[in-house]
Amino acid sequence: MFGWTGKLLHVDLTRGTCERREIPIDILHAYLGGRGLGVRLMRDYFRLGPFDPDLPLIFAVGPLCGTNSPTAARLACVSRSPLTGTIYDCSAGGRFAWRLKAAGLDALFITGKSQQPVFLSIQGERAELHPAQSLWGKGVKETVAALKEHGSVTTIGPAGENGVLFANIMMGEGNSIGRGGLGAVMGAKGLKAITVQGDGVTGVADKDRFDAARGDVMRLFRASPVIFGELGIAEYGTPALVDLMAQRRMAPTENFRSTFFAESGNYSGPAIRKECGAKKEGCYGCPIQCKKASAAGEPLPEYETVNHFGALNGISDLHAIVKANSLCNELGLDTISAAATLSAFGEARGRFPDAAEVASLLADIAYRHDQGELLSLGSRRVAELLGKPELSMSVKSLELPAYDPRGAYGMALAYVTSNRGGCHLRAYPISHEILRKPVPTDRFSFSGKARIIKIAEDVNAAVDSLVACKFAFFGATLEEYGELLSAVTGVEYGPESLKAIGERIYLTERFYNCENGFSRSHDTLPQRFFEEAGSAGEGIDVPPIDRARFDEELQKYYRIRGLDVEGGFAGRNLLAELP
Amino acid sequence: MRDQITKYTGKLLADRSASADGIAFAAQDDTLITAGAPELAALAGNTLSRLNSLALVAARPSLPFADFLIARAGQGEECIVPQDTETRTFLHDIPFLRRQDLVDDPAPVLAKLLGNRKGVIVEGVGIVAVGAITVEQAFINYSSVFHSTFVKYLQDVLADGFRLPGEREAFDSFRREWLRPLTAAGLDFIGALSLEKEEILAEIERVGRYTVERGLVDSFFGNISATAGELIYISQTAASLDELKGCIDPVPADNSSTTGITASSELLAHRKVYEQTGARVILHGHPKFSVVMSMLCDRKRECAIKDCWKDCPHVRNLGGTPVVAGEIGAGGLAKRVPPVIGASGTAIVYGHGVFTLGREGFGEAFAAMVDVENFCREEYFRQVDRIKA
């Protein structure tokens, strides 16, 4: 078999066992890997609560991982989110994915709950659980340092141990499995960390075809101003978007009360380069190297993080923002949800936290001290408990990232149709509504957006299952990645067959959610976006979103997806129809 | 969507890439709509309904070059592989269906081919191109296939002469009737561009429109810029040259802002050209004869370099215009064009297109591009005539 290993490691923490099992080849062909494989493996478990010991926590790589495919040394982590209650997946880079594959595994499938804290060590064919009592309570850096001789490390911080609903799982290289609180799922299992080392090689079925496809991908990267342009993400990282979002008047500010922050230039890409001596870093083998680190090697914040610790809380001090990012990384907190929760809390109490207060509140959240006990629940629950539910800027309890939906109507629709809640990375319409890739679309129009969002969700579900980085698709397309996949696996894939796989994955997720009680009533934006205007300027007007038009487009979306008017499956058992 | 279909039908007619009675579009939102020539519209609708895409155009090209390429292709071949930059970068190859392989309903097999590529050629029917997310994208892909087949056919004729019955006559008709004189005469440019933003934006929009209206380049093939003090005004990536209003980015020369992340991928090349030449404006486009002639090299037989488009270190010459290799964006073009463009004010990139300068305004740059393309056109036909003789 080329591409895949055909193996998963089932770790039962209750019984303390580690067992290698076969993954049926037809499942791999039909779901690829990463997100798709993880979602498929959740089929018998999706009704379990996020903290149920029997709920699996799944790490899955893809068939391109371990090859020289650009941006594909990634994995997806899949489970059910304690923050949103939805099926949940997150893609992450670093070195862990590549080493997991080199240990001969397509997936890790972790169930049960250990009585005592443990860490899982995988050394090639050998997998063992070790006591981790001495690591429990330690921050991410210290844990990674303590375990680094075992290989690549992924771990939770205090936030995950303490059940913070937006706790991350952190990769040792500074990447994160973020947003939906899978760190809390890992913590609830008593699993502090996983280490992996391997020396296996991923076979490539057709080397010449692979080299040609890789050349095509790289040529498109070079032709993309967003990727390799002199103002692009390879140079400045995702904070390259700060200036653009300010100019487009869609930078969420003061809990989305406005969409322009006059001092955002303090934390723009060029400002970070100048102030922090930003240098290039990135995931293993990635040619883009979009991550940036300080001269001292400290990971620097992404666009969403600088905006949310910046504009969203009215903070302009770059160094305070960098510190907040570092704290979140160390404690194992999601930066977007943490900052957005602080912002909702700030608006509710009539005062946004200042730079100094942010640091102390983040520590309180991770350890659930004082106000941190409340804030650890995320913005939706915080706002409800404070009697102001309208102040949570979230969809399905997931805090919205730094793209104001009043400034991009595809984004508005994408937030509500995302299966994991308010996420920008599912349909990722910023690509065409703002960055003009593959072609520009009118950001202030709903016309055609239902179909566009549906197609993009399918495409990105496939991308997340390959597992490749979405940034690659600012240049390349499924044509080139289909070629890579065919060359690696020896199985023919193309854009249309990959989109069909993506559709299968998306609908499976939606079905799980619907079975767990989600419906049309959850597919909506906070009221603010339908009632309050954003910040006009530079000839750009940012009116409230027309709710009737929004609803009309959502209904179109349901029809295109084959759903009923409530966004459901009308009694249809989707799973019986799927491999 | 109907507005978009009307608009891009008009564009296909205006640029004369499709026959007036042979254009159809299909688009799907929550319902499928079709418009245009009935048989092609039915084919477009039947095909698109099998695809997870938004739009599709099926049109009969105004020139028979695509069909000739299929007829000239060897038995067993299933696609053509043009060597120009557009195809190499974005299309890779262009699959085709032969007339004898067509069945009663070619839509399923067409959809299968389009499931892997942006455009295909159906012999005797036309070019069918898909737009994953917009009608405009389908138009761009049609335009790209038309451009690629045009360039490849002209190259092949030069290399192999005429091989099919009726081919010579069709070619002569193209030369006499389809081609029109290229001229900059009668166009209205500002002589010396001021530093005033509105004037610069208006002039960039105007020259962009002229390049398309005069048939110098097709809508999506090029970029334009002007300098003003510490700013470079440059057309955005994926912008249509004849619709640049609102699609021009001001980029600070010192990179103090990244707002220009949406600027053309050639921003770096433009910036370096300005640094080395002191020019005020740059016009870049992909005129077809310049693209064809740029790939003609008399050293090919003895040269060890395989990937000429990016690896050739030589500077060749076409009528006083230097020809260099280099891939678009961050791929080497930005290194090779700036050193050679200053002397003549013009440069051609292998398989790609023409860059021209204006010391004060776009009049000079436009006239220079017309001259380069006219030289290449004349030189092309001179060489064809030599073969025929």
UniProtKB/TrEMBL annotation, chain A:
Pfam families from the xrefs? Answer: AFOR_C, AFOR_N
Q: Which segments constitute the Aldehyde ferredoxin oxidoreductase N-terminal domain?
A: 4-200
Protein name (database record): Aldehyde ferredoxin oxidoreductase family protein
* Naturally occurring in which organism (per UniProt): Geomonas oryzisoli
UniProtKB/TrEMBL annotation, chain B:
Q: Name one Pfam family in it.
A: Aldolase_II
Class II aldolase/adducin N-terminal domain location is 202-380
Instruction: State the UniProt keywords alphabetically.
Output: Lyase, Metal-binding
SMART domains this protein is in?
A: Aldolase_II
Q: Report if keyword Lipid metabolism is assigned.
A: no
> What PANTHER family does the database record attribute to this sequence?
3-OXO-TETRONATE 4-PHOSPHATE DECARBOXYLASE-RELATED (PTHR22789:SF0), FUCULOSE PHOSPHATE ALDOLASE (PTHR22789)
Q: What is the protein name stated in its UniProt record? A: Class II aldolase/adducin family protein
